[in-house]
Design the sequence.
């Protein structure tokens, strides 16, 4: 699995390189800015891009904007943003790209298990979607007006759906029956005009589609 890594902090970049290689990834390029990221992807055609958000020259959202552009031109390219920040302006654009397949947004300080982190990267390369719950909450908060269509319980269920929980997991968390959760999910999809599909990422895609419509 070939990876291009973009991280401007040298020690973190080297540490991530070592970690990825220890778990069988091939880091074909490790760069420190968005321009280098674009060049490395053109040269190496990787399976996965793992990038920070704030990089030179402006240290604002260069990495995230580069990720959005890469997904626009290469929708099949798996991209995971790994950052300390939730940059709302472009985050929904990234997560919405290629219908939310093969994309992730993780927060550095919330990665507490190395093997789980590596498993998440593999999941994204396989076409999955991985979004930190804190990112989900902030994006949903940004879309407050469309959420008015949902009840308080439905908003709670929607947030848990976006975090990747199954109906059974949601039922345990909310101390309700699986059937009750199923009814809430059906109601959410109906209110947000999201017809059920057979897509494996449907639960997260439901939230992404909602963000599209509300943005």
Sequence:
């Amino acid at each position: 699995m070939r990876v291009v890594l973009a991280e401007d902090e040298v020690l973190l970049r080297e540490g991530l390189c070592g970690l990825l290689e220890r778990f069988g990834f091939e880091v074909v390029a490790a760069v420190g800015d968005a321009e280098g990221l674009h060049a490395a992807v053109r040269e190496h055609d990787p399976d996965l891009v793992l990038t920070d958000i704030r990089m030179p020259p402006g240290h604002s959202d260069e990495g995230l904007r580069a990720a959005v552009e890469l997904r626009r031109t290469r929708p099949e390219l798996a991209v995971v943003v790994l950052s300390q920040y939730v940059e709302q302006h472009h985050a929904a654009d990234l997560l919405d790209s290629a219908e939310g397949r093969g994309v992730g947004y993780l927060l550095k300080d919330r990665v507490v298990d190395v093997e789980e982190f590596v498993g998440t990267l593999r999941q994204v390369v396989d076409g999955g979607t991985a979004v930190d719950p804190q990112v989900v909450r902030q994006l949903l908060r940004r879309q407050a007006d469309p959420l008015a269509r949902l009840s308080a319980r439905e908003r709670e269920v929607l947030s848990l759906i976006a975090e990747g929980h199954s109906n059974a997991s949601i039922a345990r968390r909310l101390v309700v029956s699986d059937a009750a959760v199923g009814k809430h999910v059906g109601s959410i999809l109906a209110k947000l005009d999201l017809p059920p599909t057979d897509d494996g990422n449907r639960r997260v895609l439901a939230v992404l589609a909602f963000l599209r419509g509300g943005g």
About this structure: The mean pLDDT is 85. The radius of gyration is 18 Å. DSSP finds ten helices and six strands in the chain.
